[in-house]
Amino acid sequence: MTFAPPRTAVLALGTFAVGTSGYVVAGLLPALTGELGVSETAAAQLVTAFAIAYAVGSPLFAAVTGRWERRTLLVAALVVTAIGNALAALAPGYVTLLLARVVTAIGAAVFTPAASAVAAELTSPERRGRAVALVFGGLTIATILGVPLGSVLSQSVGYQAVFGLVAAFSLLGALAVRMVLPAVPAPPPVRLAERFTVAKDPRVLAMLGATVLGCLAAFSVYTFISPVLSATAGVHGTTVSLLLFVYGAGGALGNVLGGRATDRWGARAPLLVVFAGITVVLAMLPLVATSVAGAAVVLFLWGLATWSINPPIQHRLIELSSQNAGLVLSLNASAIYLGVGLSGLVGGAVLSGGGPLLLPEIAAVLTAIAAAVVVAGWRSRVRQPAPAE
Q1: R_g over Cα of the chain
Q2: Which Pfam family would be a valid example here (predicted)?
Q3: In order of start, what are the domains of the chain with their CATH numbers?
Q4: Could you identify which of 97, 129, 343, 345 might form a hypothetical disulfide with 262, taking C-beta atoms 3.0 to 4.6 angstroms apart as the criterion?
C-alpha cells in the first residue's frame, strides 16, 4: 500500500478526539473542583480512572477484537468514546462521572494502537516514523486546541457541556474514518497470552519502561499545571488556558521534528537528546516560569521535547517486532496510560505533601531515569537458543 495523507489525516482526527477525551480533565480541573465540590487531588483521579482502564483495556480488547476488520474496529471505538463522553456530560455526580471516564477509556484504548498499526501498514518503512507522528499529531493537537478550549469553555458553560462537545466530535471522527479509510483486513489472530510474549525481549521492556516513566513525569506536572503556574507565576483562569495553547504549539512542532529526526537518525539519538532536554526544562521550570513570558518559554520547550518522544519509541518498537507491530503498539499504549494513571496518584501525593513547586523537580528525576533505561535497553541482547547437537 502507498502512503496516503488523507487516510492518515482521518486517523489523526480520531486520535484528536480520543486525546481530548483523555487529557481534557487537566484543563477542567478548576471547574471540576468548583462544580463537584471535590479537592484537586480527587478531581485528578478522573485522569487516573481513565488511564488505568485504558492500560488494562488496551491489550485485553485488542485480543477480543483481533479478528475485526480494522476500519470497522476504528469506527466502533470512536462511537464508544462518544458514548463515554456523553455519559460524562449527563453524570449527576463524582462517582458516575468516574464510571463514565472508564467507558470513554475503553474506546480510546482500542482506537489509538489500532490507528498507529494501520498508519504503519499504509506507508513504506522509510516514512513510517512520519506516518506514526502524523497519527500521534492528533494527540498533540488535543493539547493545543482540545484542552485549552475545554478550559476556556468550562469557565462559562461548565465542564458537562465540554464533555458533550467532545462526544459530538468523537462521532464526527467516526464518520470521517468510515468515509475516507479503506477496508483494512485484520492481522493474523493472536491469543491474549501470546500478546505478552513480545515483552519478553528486554529491549522491548526497556522501551515500555521508558514510556511509563516519561508519561508519569509529564502528566504529574501537566495534570496539576493550574496550581503549578499559580505558585510560580501567579496566573489563573484564561491566562493558564493561553499558556496551555503555547505548550500545545511546542508539542505540535516536537511531534513533527521527532518523526523526521527518527527517519533520519534512527530512534536512539533522538530519544536520549529528548529525555535530556525534558530533564533540564522541568528542573528549571520553578526558576524560569516566574512570569507569563517565562512560563510561555518553558511550556513551549517542554511541549516541544515531550511530544518528540512518541515517534522514536514507536519506531523502535516496530523495528524490534515488525511481525507483531500491532501487539507492541497496544502494549506501548498501555504503558502510556499506565504512566498517566500513576501521575494522578504520584502527582496528587507530591502536591499534598510537598506543594506544587516540588512536582517539576520529581518529574525531572523520573525523565533522567527514563534516559538511563533507554541506554540499558539498547545494550541488552536477546538470548539466542543454544544450537542442537
Answers
A1: 20
A2: MFS_1
A3: 1-189 (1.20.1250.20), 191-381 (1.20.1250.20)
A4: 129
Q: Which long-range contacts (CB under 8 A, 24 or more apart) does 3-8 make?
A: 3/122, 3/123, 3/124, 3/127, 3/131, 4/122, 5/134, 6/180, 7/122, 7/180, 7/181, 7/182, 8/119, 8/122, 8/123, 8/131, 8/134, 8/135
Signed CA dihedral, 148, 149, 155, 158: sign only? negative
Q: What is the pLDDT of residues 48-72, one digit of tens each?
A: 888 888 888 877 887 788 788 888 9
> Which pLDDT does position 58 carry in this prediction?
78
What pTM was estimated for this model as a whole? 0.76
Cell 484542552: give the residue: 147
Q: What is the pLDDT of residues 135-181, one digit of tens each?
A: 777 777 787 778 888 888 888 888 999 999 999 999 999 999 999 88
CA–CA separation, 15 and 199 (whole Å): 25
Instruction: Answer whether 207's CB lies under 8 Å from 377's CB.
Output: yes
CA atoms within 13 A on the CB side of 370: 33
Convert 92-105 to b/e letters by CB count within 10 Å (16 or more is b): eeeeebbebbbbbb
Count of helices and strands (H, E) across the chain? 16, 0
Contact of 42 with 52, CB cutoff 8 Å: no
